[in-house]
Amino acid sequence: KTERLVEILSGQPVIPVLKIDRIADAVPLARALVRGGLKAIEITLRTPDALDAIRQVADEVPEAIVGAGTILSQKDFAGAEAAGARFIVSPGATRALLDAASRSGVPFLPGAVTPSEIMALRDEGYEVLKFFPAEQSGGTAFLRSLASPLAGMRFCPTSGISQKNAADYLALPNVICVGGSWVAPDAELASGNWAAVEELARQAASLARG
Ligand code: 3PG
């Protein structure tokens, strides 16, 4: 499972973090992101239609690797798995989620910030974590300071990241990819401007890694 997660996350510099308000947007949005070069996408369970959106993308956009985000409970985990999510992301980690993940074949990306949180997940066998909320928790300076003491742990920082500062994160040795919603702005979704989303994805996909 770790290998599969590493393969997904190392396949592109940016994982789009999506909040889908209109179910009709799910498939065209996923297609635009894939055309722009971002195949792996995270649909967050922050809207009522999120599980349906995951299901539709899984069924209708086979080129995409659809994941589920904002997973807070075992119920969320089970729903995401049943909808066809190929990876599952949480802003944190609870015993209940770690138990669900250990019973599941779907790779899990739990969130952590502090050294103790990271060490607890390391003890559970995790090598790749979401670092959330990235900018608010100390950003690149904080992450850089974890690289030596917590060698071997890699992170997908998320929150407050955009085309402007993504490269700074990607230059760090312990960053596998970054996550962000900037490639799918509300305004472009509202107007169905899929060409604009595709272009934002293309720029994100071309970001260099350190
Ligand atoms: C997440 O859930 O990973 C973040 O809320 C996305 O953060 P952003 O909107 O600042 O990119």
Find the structural class using helix and strand composition: alpha/beta
| Annotated CATH homologous superfamily | Aldolase class I
Q: DSSP helix count?
A: 10
The hetero molecules present are:
3-phosphoglyceric acid
CATH architecture: Alpha-Beta Barrel
User: Span between N and C termini?
Assistant: 25 Å
Mean pLDDT: 97
Low-confidence stretches: none
CATH domain class: Alpha Beta
| Lateral arrangement of strands in the main beta sheet | 3-2-1-9
* Fraction of residues in H or I helices: 40-55%
**Rg (C-alpha, Å):** 16 Å
Largest sheet: 4 strands, parallel
The name of the CATH topology is TIM Barrel
Count of domain modules: 1
Strand content: 15-25%
Catalytic activity: 2-dehydro-3-deoxy-6-phospho-D-gluconate = D-glyceraldehyde 3-phosphate + pyruvate
Pathway: Carbohydrate acid metabolism; 2-dehydro-3-deoxy-D-gluconate degradation; D-glyceraldehyde 3-phosphate and pyruvate from 2-dehydro-3-deoxy-D-gluconate: step 2/2
InterPro entries: Aldlse_KDPG_KHG, Aldolase_TIM, KDPG/KHG_AS_1, KDPG/KHG_AS_2
Family: Belongs to the KHG/KDPG aldolase family.
Q: Which key terms come to mind for this protein?
A:
210 residues, 15% strand, alpha/beta, 10 helices, TIM Barrel
Structure description:
Helix content is 42%, strand content 15%. It is an alpha/beta fold and 210 residues long. It has one domain: TIM Barrel (Alpha-Beta Barrel), CATH 3.20.20.70. The strands form three sheets. A four-stranded parallel β-sheet has the order 3-2-1-9. It has a three-stranded parallel β-sheet with strand order 6-7-8. Helix 2 packs across helix 10 and helix 3 packs parallel to helix 4. The two termini are 25 Å apart. The model has no long low-confidence stretch (mean pLDDT 97). The site of 3-phosphoglyceric acid (3PG) has 12 residues, from strand 9.
